[in-house]
Amino acid sequence: MGAVTRTRLLPGVFLTSVHTKKFKSSVLAMTLLSPLEEETAAANALIPYLLRRGSELHPSLQSISAALDQLYGGSIEPMIRKKGEAQCVGFVGSFLDDAYTLDNSGILDGAAGLMGELLLRPYAPNGAFCPDYTRQEKANQRDRIRAEINDKRSYASNRVVEEMCAGEPYGVGRLGRERDLEDLTPESLWARYRELLGHARVELYYCGSAESDRVCFIMQKALAGLPREGGYDSPGSSIICQAAEPRRVEETLDVAQGKLTMGFRTGGITAASPEYPALVLCNALFGGTTTSKLFLNVREKLSLCYYAGSVVHKYKGLMVVSSGVEFTNGKRAEEEILSQLEACRRGQFEDWEVTGARRYMVSSLRTVLDSQSRQEDWWLGQAVADLDGSPEELAQKVELVTVEQAVAAARKLSLDTVYFLKGAGA
User: Fold this and answer.
1) How far apart are CA 409 and CA 280, in angstroms?
2) Which candidate, 117, 262, 345, 395, has a CA 20 to 30 Å from the CA of 337?
């Protein structure tokens, strides 16, 4: 792994710089952090797309494309993510690394400058976002929200989180609600944009061959003029350790395959917890790999599911089990999933199960270092949670987790919500 340096550039502005010569491209990211709130989520998610439509110097997509062509065909894409109870909005750019240019030109300077221009000096006729751009991007955002429903597996996972975290910020979707788009105007979006610039915490990221000091200088120059008005603490996450009585939610849509999704609380274990490496191994043993109990027993042996797996929402303290089932098999699948969890709680593992799960997770964590995009996502999440551990450091901890520690993590899991998506007439 390259050397990782974290620097405070301005009040509420931080740069994570990964110095490495492993890649021929460099990655830049500028991200604004805002608390997840129903009232602002839709507007926040729309703003990066409006900013990407044009700046004062490059007021159209064609003009921006021409500027990117001058940077060896680099790219700048809008980004909206949910990390814990923070909504992360901004840009991620990919450019040829300076070490590989034909004339030793400094692409990094131009790339950071263009990205800073899009962020700080958007195309704003009459002192607000362009009405045409606003209308078009609202329609695109509506399509993106509706597209999430079309992927029923992802939709069911989002719905169980929405239900189990109803009343919590984490229950808010990263794109906001479709109905909230209607009232957004160029003026109201501009006011929200100015609010974000002044008060949001800003996370910058760089991965490439440039030295940290040079990156700091370039990014400070790119963000010259960024208003800083205070109040930019990192949005924390509220953690509910144990579930109350499990809730059941059924929904009917036009689907051919049922979706059984089960949400668990992790007993307060998050990425910041000492027990987190044990939860990582526990999840791998339970449902996180193709050698897990859910995959081998519920899917393969008993054929109760078309797919079955589990994922951990590490910044919020949740585990979500997703499965695709025949409508008539929902109850049996649920019972068997809980039975396999009970086996994990009793420590009923063969040596090969533990070895396979551990190897898979250690390898998966180390392959993060082979992808610039995965590294950027990792370090953004760590920054949001005010953590500094690397994938390699977590991999080393997972290698040392004992079966007893994984069992202890399994015993902390409590079922919160069962969501079943079925077809009409099922």
Assistant:
1) 9
2) 395
N residues, the chain: 426
Alpha-carbon distances of 263 from 154, 158, 332, 414, rounded to whole Å: 14, 10, 17, 9
End-to-end CA distance of the chain: 52
Per-residue model confidence as pLDDT tens digits over 62-104: 999 999 999 999 999 999 999 999 999 999 999 999 999 887 6
368: tokens are: 């993060």
Under DSSP, the state recorded for 310 is E
Distance CA 315, CA 383 (A): 11
Kind and range of the H or E run holding 78: strand 75-83
Element (DSSP H or E) covering residue 321: strand 318-325
**Residue 150 CB partners (closer than 8 Å, separation 6+):** none
What amino acid occupies position 174? R
191-198 long-range contacts, Cβ below 8 Å, gap at least 24? Answer: 192/40, 192/43, 192/44, 192/47, 193/47, 193/50, 193/51, 193/122, 193/129, 194/227, 196/32, 196/34, 196/44, 196/47, 196/89, 197/32, 197/119, 197/120, 197/226, 197/227, 198/227, 198/228, 198/229, 198/230
Report the C-alpha gap between 18 and 212 in whole angstroms.
Answer: 8
Per-residue CA distances from 335 to 32, 173, 257, 267 (Å): 43, 29, 18, 21
pLDDT, tens digit, for every residue of 382-392?
999 999 999 99
- Rounded to 5 degrees, φ, ψ at 368 are -55, -35
Residue 46: count other Cβ atoms within 10 Å of its Cβ.
28
Residue closest to 79 by CA, chosen among 68, 70, 67, 88: 88
Which residues make Cβ contacts (< 8 Å) with residue 304, sequence separation at least 6?
298, 323, 325, 329, 332, 333, 336
C-alpha angle 375-379-380 in degrees, rounded to nearest 5: 115
Whether 37 and 173 have beta carbons less than 8 Å apart is answered as no
